[in-house]
Specification:
single chain; 164 residues; mainly alpha; 2 domains; binds zinc ion
Length: 164
């Protein structure tokens, strides 16, 4: 029991902070001239939000801004259309998709949500902040590759039709 308690305490201590919030915190500490060897350095890093699925794929401010901007873009004829940019994507839709009568749209929509999550996962793996323009560029490659697929592929090239 004693061992377990100390093991758990140790585990709690090692709780990793969000990779993206940590990158940003370190950048801010550097700007403020707070160096790694200073006692307050670790103190500030321990204030970073814990890294869990909900935070890193959705709630993290560095992720949320990129997600909303990206979906505003693909909802509006790649930025050319009107009217649908101000609809915010919902967390449960992002994680579970939506029930739709049009299976082609349902499939294309799910692929896009998974693609965005995979992009975030890659950023975390590379220890880099998600970037809206980079996500758009990666997504364009995907649409070129999948745009000829039958039934659902056409929606990858006409994403705004998914959200009409
Ligand atoms: Zn974060």
């Amino acid at each position: 029991m004693l061992y377990l308690n100390s093991a758990l305490a140790h585990f709690a201590e090692e709780r990793p902070g969000c990779s993206f919030c940590t990158i940003e915190a370190k950048r801010e500490l550097r700007i403020q001239g707070i160096l790694e060897e200073m006692p307050e350095y670790d103190y500030y890093l321990r204030l970073v939000q814990p890294e869990n699925t909900s935070h890193i794929f959705w709630e993290c401010e560095h992720v949320q801004a990129v997600i909303q901007e990206f979906f505003a873009h693909i909802r509006t004829e790649n930025g050319m259309g009107f009217g649908r940019a101000n609809i915010r994507l919902d967390k449960s839709v992002f994680f579970r998709g939506e029930i739709r009568s049009n299976l082609g749209k349902a499939k294309a929509e799910l692929i896009i949500y998974h693609f965005v999550k995979y992009y975030i996962y890659q950023c975390r793996f590379r220890q880099r902040l998600p970037n809206y323009l980079e996500l758009r560029r990666d997504f364009n490659f995907l649409t070129i590759q999948t745009g000829n697929a039958r039934k659902w592929g056409r929606y990858m090239l006409r994403t705004w039709e998914i959200f009409e």
